[in-house]
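Researcher: Sequence recovery benchmark, item below. Answer with residues only.
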């Protein structure tokens, strides 16, 4: 027979187990965040012969009323209680919201801990890849979305910023229709397909034309970096606007450790312009990590049809290697696959199955190789 445990001992043991339950948005344990207001354990009325059965009530205070991740958190709490080995525990979760004063204190502590753009710390573990192109229409945003989804599916903690303020598209590509949660001025990124996302397209009024000039563009990026709680992702991707305008310069200033990935298509009209987006590295402290050639070929009845010509990625790679004085490799040649557009427009990156795993397709295989090669460089 299992030795009876006093209620106080059980409450302490449950609290210890709950310290391993992580809030999905803030990346901290629910105990560290002060979300566990109280734990009450009392013997049940029908405890049985050994009396080793308890009703356990956990009082949970979420950061905001109606938190979209409430069910996820309560399921994790139930799992932690159910795993207790020394007694039979019957869990009851009572969910409420933090008081304004308690939330103010929590947000102030989090902001004081971070203080500034978290990706500029010299000891940051985050690899930052800025996805750039010389012109629109080459599939830069599609590459960003599928690469981010691939990183997440491979087990990397992944975040993405839609830095194309005028032509934002990541919310649609990830099927996001909700707004970020606002914790007293600190935003929680929206998570979709395992990727933490932020985009101007998530906010009210974003369906109207955006007429911003340089200083406001720069401020938008600073807010995305400093006013959003990112935690410590392994990978951060930025979907840049085409060309070499204000946002590319702002990224270089705000994230000098960012690595540029240039996207092109095979035809000369695209590759010639793509070189210019890579040459921005001559003027700002960013390293060009490599080139991705998108829409390289179309597979038809076992034959590769080069619809847009050939050699664009190799031309960009060679010219940037010569101009920058270091190797800028051609990292990947991605096929032209209609499913990338069709599935992407439905709100799911084409590299993923409906269940969120990596698909067994050519495009998923190519993106997996690209992701692993980037992390190995």
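Model:
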């Amino acid at each position: 027979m299992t030795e009876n445990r006093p209620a106080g001992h059980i409450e302490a043991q449950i609290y210890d187990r709950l310290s391993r339950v992580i809030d999905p948005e803030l990346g901290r344990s629910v105990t560290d965040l002060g979300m566990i207001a109280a734990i009450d354990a009392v013997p049940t009325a029908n405890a049985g012969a050994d009396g080793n059965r308890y009703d356990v009530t956990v009082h949970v205070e979420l950061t905001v009323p109606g938190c979209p991740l409430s069910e996820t958190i309560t399921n994790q709490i139930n799992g932690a209680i159910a795993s207790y080995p020394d007694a039979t525990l019957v869990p009851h979760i009572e969910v409420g919201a933090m008081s304004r004063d308690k939330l103010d204190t929590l947000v102030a502590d989090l902001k004081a801990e971070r203080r500034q753009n978290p990706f500029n710390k010299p000891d940051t573990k985050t690899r930052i890849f800025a996805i750039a192109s010389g012109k629109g229409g080459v599939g830069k945003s599609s590459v960003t979305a599928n690469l981010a989804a691939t990183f997440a599916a491979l087990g990397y903690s992944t975040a993405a910023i839609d830095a194309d303020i005028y032509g934002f598209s990541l919310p649609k590509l990830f099927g996001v229709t909700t707004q970020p949660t606002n914790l007293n001025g600190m935003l929680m990124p929206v998570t979709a397909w395992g990727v933490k996302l932020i985009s101007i397209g998530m906010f009210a009024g974003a369906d109207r034309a955006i007429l911003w000039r340089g200083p406001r563009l720069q401020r938008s990026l600073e807010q995305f970096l400093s006013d959003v709680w990112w935690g410590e992702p392994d990978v951060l991707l930025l979907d840049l606007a085409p060309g070499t305008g204000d946002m590319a310069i702002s990224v270089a200033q705000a994230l000098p450790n960012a690595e540029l990935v240039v996207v092109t298509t095979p035809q000369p009209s695209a590759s010639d312009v793509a070189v210019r987006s890579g040459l921005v590295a001559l003027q700002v402290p960013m390293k060009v990590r490599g080139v991705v050639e998108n829409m390289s070929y179309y597979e038809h009845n076992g034959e590769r049809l080069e619809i847009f010509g050939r050699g664009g990625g190799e031309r960009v790679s060679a010219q940037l290697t010569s101009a920058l004085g270091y190797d800028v490799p051609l990292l990947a040649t991605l096929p032209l696959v209609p499913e990338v557009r069709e599935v992407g427009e439905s709100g799911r990156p084409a590299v993923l199955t409906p269940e969120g795993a990596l698909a067994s397709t050519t495009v998923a295989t190519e993106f997996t190789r690209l992701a692993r090669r980037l992390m190995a460089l």
